[in-house]
Amino acid sequence: MNEEAKKKALLLLPSCAAVIGTRGAGGEVAGATVTWMTQSSFKPPLIVAALRMGSAAELNARRERRFALSFLGPDQKSVGQTFFRAPTGADGRIADLAYETGRSGAPILADCAAWVECEVRDFVDGGDHAVVVAEVIEAGIRSESPRPLLLADVGWKYGG
Questions:
Q1: Smaller CB count within 10 Å for the chain: N or C?
Q2: Half-sphere exposure for 96 (CA within 13 Å, toward CB)
Q3: How far apart are CA 91 and CA 80, in angstroms?
Q4: Which residues contact 89 (CB under 8 A, 6 or more apart)?
């Protein structure tokens, strides 16, 4: 396979950035930047997302079967970069950013463009990421005209 062609072709897949928030059995919270996700069904509303195997976010989502995705806005590149380091938190803050909890109990960033809360339906393990299939159980919009932070806008080359 032509590795350069493969990488360039796969980077053409449009992708936005979100922060997955999870809560562990002991109440600890964890977050990570997610860039591989899409909606896969309308009824019920299902999404799929890729989570790095062994990360706190993946382990919490797998055990607790719930998570939230906080979609970042176009001016939140630094937030996305912060969550590449997979921070943890407590007392309403994660990576020094305020969060709140909703129906799922998972952390939702207080300053995000939009969010969804999900219940896990299935995991598919493969490679260095696990694909999670989850049903959207709640959603919210925080901006009158939300626009996501796109990887194409920030120059991140995560993929390929």
A1: N
A2: 3
A3: 21
A4: 29, 30, 31, 95, 99, 107
Task: DSSP letter for 143, please.
Answer: S
The per-residue pLDDT for range 68-122, each reduced to its tens digit, is 999 999 999 999 999 988 787 877 899 889 999 999 999 999 999 999 999 999 9
Where b means 16+ CB within 10 Å and e means fewer, 65-91 reads ebbbbbbbbeebbebbebbeebbebee
Q: Name the residue ranges covered by the structural domains of the chain.
A: 16-29+73-148
Residue 46 to residue 106: CA distance in whole angstroms: 18
Domain at 16-29+73-148, CATH from 3.80.10.10, 2.30.110.10, 2.40.10.10, 3.40.50.620: 2.30.110.10
pTM here?
Answer: 0.91
